[in-house]
Amino acid sequence: EQFIEDDPYSIFPTISNSEKPDKVVAKILEGRAAILVDGTPFALVVPMVFIESFQSVEDYYTKPYIASITRLIRFLSYIISILGPAIYVALTVFHQELIPTQLLISIAEGRERVPFPALLEASLMIFTFDILREAGVRLPKPVGHTVGIVGAIVLGQASVEAGLISPIMVIVVSSTAIASFAVPAQADSGTILRYIYLALAGIAGGFGVIMGLLATFLHLASLDSFGTPYLWPVAPFKLSAMKDVFIRMPLSAMEKRSGTIFQGDSNS
Q1: Largest CB tally within 10 Å, which of 106, 129, 141, 143?
Q2: What is the pLDDT of residues 194-205, one digit of tens each?
Q3: How far, rounded to the nearest angstrom, does the alpha carbon of residue 241 sit from its chain's CA centroid?
Q4: Residue 4 DSSP label
Q5: Residue pair 110/179 in contact by the 8 Å Cβ criterion
Q6: How many other β-carbons are positioned within 10 Å of the β-carbon of residue 78?
Q7: How many distinct helices (H) and strands (E) make up the chain?
Q8: Which residues, in sequence order, are bridge partners of residue 33?
Q9: Picking from 117-126, 220-229, 236-245, which range would have the lowest pLDDT averaged per residue?
């Protein structure tokens, strides 16, 4: 996978992989290619577009409105996972006027005993969460779940009682951690972007976050996966292919495949 990808230095995956035969077959029917390698249970599928990270096989086994709501939740979860701590730091440090008065008072009361600035506080919490997640992965599964749950509860509660972390920061980082598991295909890129946006928020507030988002969109727009634009069908925009992007239309409305990945439309 690393030898054949178009941009090996990008943090975003440009080749998808799966162990599910139904998912791989569905991608082949869309005009893509599956690569099978002896000795590994994963099949590589090319080309890959960014929107695939938010699609799931289960979306096509349920009603379209349920699948659409679930997909929108995945998009929102990804946004929360990469921007949650950065927005909190930007608001509390640079843009307090945007916070409602009652909420601002609650945040100020929670941070009264905290000796660290908001940027360092958020960085320590996110770094601690990444340590717990990595430890949970390396340990045997029953022990790993216990370490992750107990470690997060004990460390979070003890840190708040000791005055090292504010309660609102625990809520922000916990929400970010939970949201990061909703889109596993972009978990690696989400982890890197979370630190980048947090640093930009601590340096320049909302302006830094916006500049980071702009740079990210420009990078995504510049990526290709085996000749296919990574942001297709959003950029370049293709209306006929938008039936399965942000919402999932009924299967009867998606009987024909859309271009770019292959030329022309044909019945599925």
Answers
A1: 129
A2: 999 999 999 999
A3: 22
A4: T
A5: no
A6: 22
A7: 7, 5
A8: 46
A9: 236-245
Q: Hey, what are 121's tokens?
A: 């506080």
Residue located via tokens 């708040």: 160
Place of tokens 């990574």: 230
Please state, in angstroms and rounded to a whole number, the distance separating the CA atoms of residues 150 and 169: 18
Q: What six digits make up the tokens of 175?
A: 């929400």
Q: Quick check: 267 pLDDT over 60?
A: no
Give the Cα separation of 192 and 39 in Å (integer).
Answer: 30
pLDDT tens-digit readout, 32-86: 999 999 989 999 999 999 999 999 988 989 999 999 999 999 999 999 999 999 9
Strand partners, 44: 17, 35
∠ Cα 121 126 127 (to 5°): 100
pTM: 0.89
Going 116 to 119 to 121 to 124, the CA torsion angle's sign is: negative
Residues 6+ apart with CB under 8 A from 91: 98, 99
